[in-house]
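User: Hey, my collaborator sent me this sequence without any context and asked if I could get a structure. I don't really work with proteins. Can you help?
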Amino acid sequence: VVISNCVINLSPDKRRTYLEILRVLRPGGRMVVADIVTDERVDAALRNSARFRGECLGGAMVQQDLVQMLEDCGFTAIRIHRRQPYRQEGGHRFFSLTYEARRPDPAGERKLVRAMYRGPWREVETESGIRLERGRITRITPADAACWDDSVFLLDEDGTVTNVEQGNSCCGQAPEKAGEGGRQGRIVPVRRHDRGCMVCGAELVYDNTPRQRRCHFCGSSARVSVACGRGHYVCDACHQEEGLAVIHHICTTSREQDMVRLEAIIRSHPAVPMHGPEHHAMVPGIILAAYRNSGGSISGKAIETGIDRGSTVPGGACGFWGSCGAAVGAGIAAALILDATPLTPHPRHQAQAFTASVLAEIAAVRGGRCCQRETWLALTATARLSAQYLGLRLAADEILHCSQYLANRECIRKQCPLWEHRDRQDADRAVFLNLAR
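Assistant: No problem. I've predicted the 3D structure and written it out in structure-token form, which is a compact way to encode the shape of the chain:
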């Protein structure tokens, strides 16, 4: 560790000072510094005054510039611990700032740590670009774990919280070992923005020093010189291509095995609307991608063929044709997996029987169209039927939390199977309130 108590502001070349600190730290080491900062650049008269430089004011950095300089020098896990008013001079307010930052440790980052973000926000992003969704267990780097406070639970492999002391609950004493929480997170679709950053709407920031970043949507990694102020990066393929091209790109590149998770990733992209025929192409793409990622033998060309076939099913087919495009899309995927053609009796029969079963699942819900619900029904039905018809068990285990019910005029509320999770939460809350009374 390197420590400094209010003297770096005296350095005439602060960048060189920080680079030297970075050099002497071992990988994973940190510096902890107390210094004087301001919120705006001080006047030249104050900066050039020997008196005020000696009193730690003339050389005080703007806080935002300080953080940027630390990043430019290569520090990570930058964290501000304390900020207190220090002095007012020449119309400027100065503050005492205590902060820390770490030297990256590439070798030590290979062993990931299990973490769960507690809230209150819907999601946050770590220094290395990993998204943490509220309530979802995710693996993060040790450097990311080192800079979190108690808003994030760090878990051992048994699921036990290791960084925050757990008291007793109404169910008794805190267990020695918590159950596995692996795949029971909540998927919350990301808000979409058509200006600035696609993810959060923040202004894009361009830098001549490229950094390794992971695309927020497809997960591809690249050294790039652009991201938003919050660190979100969207690759060119996801940024420039829309609609079907986005589905093509994500389904052919993603390694995700859970079909519901893939649905949420694709639908979070701003090019994919709440309703539309894109969902007819999405379903075969998701099923075929999950089949390949789960060990099934199918080519990337077959995935593209499935998406192209699904794209020919027009909007409104659920009402005008009497067959939901999501069910047709599932049948397209099954036909490709089974290698069915009009002249192959058994594969053709199996593909049609599979499609009929998926369509029956969708038709059992009475209501106006909802592409999210019907895509979800097609995928969960596919998961149940996959071992029987496709010879490989596909996963659709993620919990999909609906956040569009207020925007969907045809939403059937409590009659929708996606509403059940919300009902259970409301019921649990009602029981708790009754007990409290």
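In plain terms: Confidence is low (pLDDT under 50) at residues 172-195, 427-433. You can pass these tokens on to your collaborator as they are.
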